[in-house]
Design a protein that fits this description.
alpha+beta, six-stranded mixed β-sheet, 5 helices
């Protein structure tokens, strides 16, 4: 069924930039309060950040952390399905999925406003960097880059590290996504100097604004915020830089959150603007697809 017909071109999007603790119930309660607050303000679509059930456990390689994973469907989906249903919103969530014994994914789940599951996306690009040891925990996604149809539009949901890859954004756009959405958990090493911190944060913002421009689509990027220590003490932990934002189809800022504050923001997005921008800047028309075969190679000599 096409759920995108007979809807307003103006979409009210709520973003939830929160800090988290090791108390799953407390994190869910705070998320639920945010969902209720934004729904009361008129939000139709609400986006949470990456792995919002817990602290960012990927700072270390610890087999005990697999106990944080959840079955899908299960009590995680029951909780957020009810949150979506009670508040009448489309809801984008993020979970540590236990798919089978020894097989885990970093998975986004989208709920329709009636509480049903509209679709899922398993994170495709998995980092393995100091403080971000995600390859230890997550198998790469196997669901492809497929937008999720909802009553508020066709959502191109990707996750965090995916946001650095123009190919992922482009494939979502080519398959009809009307929004690009990135639940995220990214921050800097507190030991880095201020100039390096800002270079990293600005690069993160710039590349995603570039996806908006290149594809003529709004981008919604929702990060966590706050300091989380390394449980081993081997590093100085991660200071998640917040800075959640919404950009329009020309990369223009529609909303910017702070670097160090928990925030809940409501943003009005005009989905019809994408069509107008694509007429002015017809990048999709002028692509030379017959010359792009090299993009499927690891490297070109």
């Amino acid at each position: 069924m096409d759920r995108t017909t007979s809807r307003s071109p103006h979409l009210k999007v709520g973003i939830v930039q929160h800090f988290f603790s090791d108390d799953v119930d407390s994190n869910r309660s705070r998320n639920l309060a945010a969902i209720q607050n934004l729904a009361d303000e008129g939000a139709q679509l609400i986006v949470l950040s990456e792995l919002h059930d817990s602290l960012y456990f990927c700072q270390t390689e610890n087999v005990d952390n697999f106990n944080l994973a959840v079955d899908l469907p299960g009590e995680f989906t029951d909780f957020y399905a009810e949150a979506a249903r009670q508040n009448g919103v489309v809801l984008v969530t993020s979970a540590f999925e236990r798919r089978a014994p020894g097989l885990y994914h970093n998975t986004a789940i989208v709920f329709e406003k009636d509480g049903s599951i509209a679709g899922q996306y398993r994170k495709m690009h998995i980092p393995d960097d100091p403080g971000f040891y995600e390859k230890f925990y997550f198998a790469p996604g196997d669901m492809g880059f497929e937008p999720i149809d909802t009553s508020v539009g066709r959502l191109g949901v990707l996750v965090c590290w995916d946001q650095w890859y123009p190919e992922a954004a482009r494939l979502m756009a080519l398959r009809g996504a009307e929004l690009l959405i990135y639940p995220t958990a990214i921050g800097w090493n507190p030991d880095d100097d201020e100039d390096e911190k800002q270079r990293q944060r600005n690069a993160w913002i710039t590349v995603q604004r570039g996806h908006a421009v290149a594809n003529g689509l709004p981008v919604v990027s929702v990060n966590r915020v706050g300091y989380e220590e390394d449980p081993t003490g081997d590093t100085s932990g991660i200071d998640f830089w917040g800075s959640s934002f919404v950009a329009g189809p020309q990369g223009e800022f529609l909303c910017e959150c702070g670097e160090a504050t928990a925030e809940e923001r409501l943003v009005d997005i005009d989905l019809e603007r994408s069509e107008n921008v694509r007429r002015w800047w017809p990048f999709l028309r002028d692509r030379r697809i017959e010359n792009y075969s090299g993009l499927t190679s690891r490297f070109l000599d």
